[in-house]
Amino acid sequence: MADTERRLGRYRLLDQIERDGDARLYRALDADGRSVILWTVPLACLCAAPSVEGDALERFRHMAAAAARLVHPAIPAVLASGEHAGIAFVATAPVEGPTLATRLKTGPVILEDSVATLDRVLDALGAAHRAGVVHGALDTKAIHRSGAAAMVTGFGRGALTASYANPRDDLDAARRLAERLLTDHADRPEVAALLARVRDDGTDAFPDAAALRCAVCELGKASAGPPAAPPRHDRHWPMWTIWLGGLALAGAGAAVVALHSPAPSPPLPQSEMQAAARSALSFPVPTTRRPPIAAVAQALRSVNCTLLTVEDVNGRLLVSGTVAGEQAGGAVRDTVGANAAGWDYGLDLVTADAQFCVPLDTVAAALDANRRLEMPLAATVTEGPALNAGDSLALEIRAPARPVVLQVDYFTIDGSVVHLLPNPSDQGTALAAGALRRLGGRAEGERRWTVGPPYGTEMLLTIATPEPLFPTVRPEQEQAADYLAALARVLASLPDDAPAPLATVRFITTGP
Asked: Taking every annotated instance into account, which residue ranges of this chain make up the domain DUF4384 (predicted)?
């Protein structure tokens, strides 16, 4: 990669660590100078790859979001994921220390460390599978360090590359890992018995990571042996306790201090001793108080050009959604960093073209009004958010808990807007409270739209108001700038006592 190309959005690429087909692994720095590990795959290669789960781009987004929700001490956090300049990427926290593959080159790992490594790796794998995340490339190179400090890297990579992987593939890899670590200890009967089950029974004996982990942990109990007898002491020193900074130091060392001190004062009454103990232990421990999720979400609403969701996932703050332009993405990261003190947080952001900033800001108040409803206006792309050339655009729109009139607009990557409803052949925009309206179906005579070039991330905007926004139907296609200027004027002229306009936005990725 040329020097002028050594950036990917907010990341500065330092050096390439690994290459696996179309996927590349980089050491990188984010805009704040923090080190990250960055997996990348060209979008063209990702979209061309077959996937057992359907559309590969949609699978990537789903898997990356699921990986960002993983919270486990042996899994590095997924910090961000998305698409930029034709590249899909996943950024994870870096992990220090040699890989298990490097460690094994120096000789066998002792049994206790082998058991501890497998225990931690299998626990991480089980947590990932329960969250719907597949690794897809588990081996000794994906494990850094060994024993109780082992870390399993590569879950973010799985979102980009593991198109055919499933939990069974991970379990097969875990059994191979168990064989690799335990074979050097097969002279022990209990290890030999487990290896025989791993090789002969496979999935039948260990249907999931938890089952294999349980069997491995039994080895740890066997190797530990019976508890050692307490040491004998020929001389018994008196036991004294000294309170120092809230910590009780007890034992022979305290006795020695007492023996070289002047004669002790008479002991305090029991009630005073208990009070002193409580006082000594009552020093406050400074903690960083985590702000409420609602406070972080409110702070993010001040960031223009965004469509975000903020949630607590197993004690970790996750901010996901779409930002229109790199500047908006940077503002989101800065706002989260300034307002989420005390949280372990992750970002799962898709960066759309900056041109979509204007429509998002134009309907920002309507988007907020819709979020506050118990039964909001909803729009769904029935074939998913990723469509290819020739695919039909089909929608389902659900009205809120009041009758509304719809305005449905599709903003294209080339700066145009197509008015899906109303349009010259369909002006039936009224929708009863809670009613469902379908657009783009295959019924005879029904209006249809198909995907064509240019391709990229495009935006679907649905607005609901008590009355039609415009007195006459606008041309079916026009320049987005002209329409947005007219839309802003209309929204500003709505009566103050009228029900607030509602809006919902969906981003759609199109490709050849």
From this structure: 388-468
Other CB atoms closer than 10 Å to residue 277's CB: what's the count? 14
CA atoms of 57 and 110, how far apart (whole Å): 43
Q: Are residues 298 and 214 in the same domain?
A: no
Q: Which amino acid is at 336?
A: V
pTM higher than 0.70 for the full model? no
Q: Cis peptide leading into 167, omega within 30 of 0?
A: no
Share of the chain above pLDDT 90, in %: 41
Residues 406 and 455 in one domain: yes
CB 89 within 8 A of CB 40: yes
- Please say whether the beta carbons of 359 and 352 come within 8 A: no
Contact between 82 and 30 under an 8 Å Cβ cutoff? The reply is: no
One-letter amino acid for residue 468 of the chain: P
CB within 8 A of 320, min separation 6: which ones? 65, 68, 308, 309, 311, 347, 348, 349
Please indicate, yes or no, whether residues 60 and 163 belong to a single structural domain of this protein.
yes
> At 67, is the pLDDT very low, low, confident or very high (cuts 50, 70, 90)?
confident
Query: Whose structure tokens read 């789960």?
Result: 53
Q: Is the pLDDT of residue 460 over 70?
A: yes
Cα(369)–Cα(499) distance, integer angstroms: 10
353 vs 507: CA distance, rounded Å: 11
Q: How many domains does the chain have?
A: 3
Range(s) of the domain holding residue 166: 3-224
Is 420 in the same domain as 345?
Answer: no
